[in-house]
Amino acid sequence: MQSIDRVKLREMFPPPGNLVVQKVLDRLDQHCLHFLSLSPFLLIATQGHNGADVSPRGDPAGFVKAIDRQTILIPDRPGNNRLDTMENILDNPRVGCLFLVPGLGEILRINGEADLVVGPELEQLAFQGKTPPVAIRIRIGEALFHCAKAVIRSKVWNPATFARREDFPPLGAVLADQIAGLDKDEMIEWIRVGDQRTLY
């Protein structure tokens, strides 16, 4: 295999059509807002001094709040406390997000600049009586919809293609293989209990 540069890359593909260029918005329209209200899951990409990172965020549909047509808030829920996403934002505010809606092929992509916010305004992000201690605020630079080709090719929402639980070991078993001294059964149970008790 050989690497290629930007010039060679562009020689290999036709230029994007006018529609591809024109569909990029600098703010949320009614369709973006509607899609956000249906989305329970997103991936957020960041980059900091330690490199790039992509992390998932999920909650009941509509958990990401549009403050206005150029600003969204993503609540931080309990996790592993690595804080990769948030520390990267402190290094470099540029972020990219992909929003998915189960059953739909379209994907909403939002790029912009983020910061971390605290304060009583985060009460609007509370769930099950718990307000997140911090939220990611994104000021939107680009918003656009991707067509369904990736979803169609992957059959990601097709139950007939879903992996069975026995096709891949649970995380506790994986960690016991990766880290010496861990008991597989204890880890499986610890993660199972934690997944239920520390969601919020």
TrEMBL record:
Positions in coiled-coil regions: none
Entries under Pfam families matching the protein: PNPOx_N
Domain (Pyridoxamine 5'-phosphate oxidase N-terminal) ranges: 29-145
UniProt cross-references to InterPro entries, sorted A to Z: Pyridox_Oxase_FMN-dep, Pyridox_Oxase_N, Split_barrel_FMN-bd
Annotated signal sequence range: none
Protein name: Pyridoxamine 5'-phosphate oxidase N-terminal domain-containing protein
